[in-house]
Design a protein that fits this description.
The protein has helices at 12-23, 61-69, 104-114, 118-138, 154-158, 161-164, 167-172, 178-185, 204-211, 222-234, 276-281, 292-297, 329-337, 382-400, 416-423, 468-485; strands spanning 4-8, 27-31, 43-46, 49-52, 81-83, 88-93, 96-100, 215-217, 238-240, 245-251, 254-260, 263-266, 269-272, 303-311, 321-324, 348-351, 366-374, 408-414, 455-457. The protein has 486 residues and is an alpha/beta fold. Helix 2 (61-69) packs parallel to helix 16 (468-485) and helix 4 (118-138) crosses helix 9 (204-211). The longest helix has 21 residues, at 118-138. The protein is globular and about 65 Å long. It starts with a strand and ends with a helix.
């Protein structure tokens, strides 16, 4: 039976869900509070420069292919992909960096040149990572997190120790060189937790990195959002922007509609792709499945201090994606997870999309995005932002041996307060809830409300977890659940 489904938010998970739900024959309407769609994956344009405000890494291309294939389409029907070569670069000190190639053969050679014997160890590690990837991405993450029995397969039973070990120990017992350890620990940061708190099974992220490579969609990650918008509209989805949800209407224990910009709209099903915690505040307290105490005890992924910078010249000695690990990784991690505070010496990430994409900046100029991971919930002031911009630009100049400050045309920033204002993000987190052992699969907040009939959730605070590919999968999972239960 055709259902009238109202969706809150227009990020990756909400757009994915809308496509699947419309394909099922439902009437689907999306409400987005901001003036443009995309959720955290919006776009900033200024003075001829174009920036992705949110995600900048395109990993796991097979997940995107699987999504579009479900509708008889291919990513290439909507956008052009380029595999980055090299994939990225990691700085450890002044003129001291490691470049990660776009293929495993060269990466093995690089590892061997840094630590004798590590090349063969990497090949073995990557075979295990690929096996985990095949189990996780082709099977486990496409399960809805309803029951612990979802984790019980022949393959996962054989790998049970990989759920109780952790990535950090697993890597460090094989590799001794600190640079190699940090390079291998880096991919799991996308899961939102410290490597020491991330189960060994998540080594599949290393296969996503070294095995499948790093890609760039022409015109940036926002081109994927626009592709999903086009697909959704082709399927009959209606999208409204500047539409703030003030309340989820409930009658007799069932969601019956939304209050949008002061007006009531009815629904047979309500699905939220907005922040899970915020969504529950749109309900009367008796209808909320999770208490404030519950959320406060959870391990959240970091927030971020981001800068979007227009430069009047090209930057030398950096790649499209460049990581700066020239300070103590463990100390910064403690400042995020253990004793939350602003880090004294932060690691940071820089993206220069105009190295690859001429549409990102005017000719002869450079678009730069800088990201410092920080603990959610920290004080956020203009003075702090400026202090940390000065810290990272000074280090960037020294590490890459060039003057950059004098070439800045403009800069804009985005931090904790903006994540809260623009996305209603819990404590201003950037990536959702971390994938730790006790926050995996069925242990995450549920896709279906435990208190309100016909109310569902999707996105990075529910299954399967943080990241763009998981968001696409989350949209499919919730659409399948709605089809099954409604």
């Amino acid at each position: 039976m055709n259902k009238d489904i109202k969706i809150i938010g227009s990020g990756f998970s909400a757009l994915a869900a809308s496509c699947y739900l419309a394909q099922q024959g439902n009437t689907v309407t999306i409400y987005e509070k901001n003036s443009t769609i995309g959720g955290r994956a919006r776009q900033l344009k200024r003075d001829g420069f174009t920036f992705d405000i949110g995600p900048t890494w395109y990993w796991m291309p097979d997940v995107f292919e699987r999504f579009f294939a479900d509708f008889g389409k291919k990513p290439s029907d909507y956008y052009t992909l380029q595999k980055l070569s090299p994939a990225y670069q990691v700085y450890f000190g002044e003129a001291d960096f490691v470049t990660i190639a776009d293929n495993l053969t060269e990466i093995v050679t690089t590892f061997e040149s840094i630590e004798k014997g590590s090349g063969a160890k990497l090949e073995t590690f990557m075979k295990e990572a690929q096996s985990n990837y095949n189990i996780a991405i082709k099977d486990l993450v496409y399960r809805p997190g309803v029951s612990p029995l979802e984790l019980i397969t022949v393959e996962t039973a054989m790998k049970v120790n990989q759920f109780f070990g952790n990535i950090s120990k697993d890597i460090r017992r094989r590799f001794k060189n600190k640079k190699l350890v940090q390079i291998l620990e880096f991919p799991v940061l996308f899961l939102g937790a410290k490597p020491s708190d991330t189960p060994s099974f998540y080594s599949f992220m290393n296969f996503a990195d070294f095995g499948l490579g790093t890609w760039h969609p022409k015109n940036g990650m926002y081109s994927v959002i626009l592709a999903m918008e086009q697909l959704a509209k082709e399927l009959g989805v209606t999208i409204h922007t500047n539409s703030n949800i003030e309340k989820i209407e409930v009658a007799n224990g069932k969601a019956i509609g939304l209050k949008v910009n002061g007006e009531n709209v009815s629904a047979n099903v309500v699905l939220s792709g907005a922040d899970y915690h915020h969504t529950e505040t749109l309900l009367d307290e008796k209808h909320r499945a999770y208490s404030e105490k519950y959320w406060d005890k959870k391990t959240f992924a970091p927030s971020s201090l981001l800068f979007y910078v227009g430069l009047d010249k090209k930057v030398a000695n950096v790649e499209h994606h460049s990581l700066f690990f020239d300070v103590d990784f463990d100390v910064h991690a403690q400042d995020i997870y253990d004793t939350p505070k602003w880090p004294e010496e932060p690691l940071f990430y820089a993206s220069f999309p105009s190295k690859t994409d001429s549409n990102s900046a005017p000719e002869g100029k450079e678009a730069a995005i800088f990201l410092i991971p920080i603990a959610p919930g920290l004080e956020d002031t203009p003075e702090l932002r400026e202090t940390y911009f000065e810290k990272i630009i000074t280090r960037l100049e020294k590490l890459t041996n060039q003057n950059i400050k004098n070439s800045i045309i403009f800069k804009e920033s985005f931090c904790v307060n903006d994540f809260i204002k623009d996305y209603n993000s819990y404590k201003g987190n950037a990536y959702g809830m971390a994938n730790t052992l006790l926050q995996t699969a069925f242990l995450r907040p549920k896709l279906k409300s435990k208190k309100v009939e016909s109310l569902y959730f999707t996105g990075q605070l529910t299954v399967p977890g943080p990241g763009v590919p998981p968001a696409l999968i989350s949209g499919k999972l919730v659409a399948d659940l709605i089809k099954k239960l409604c």
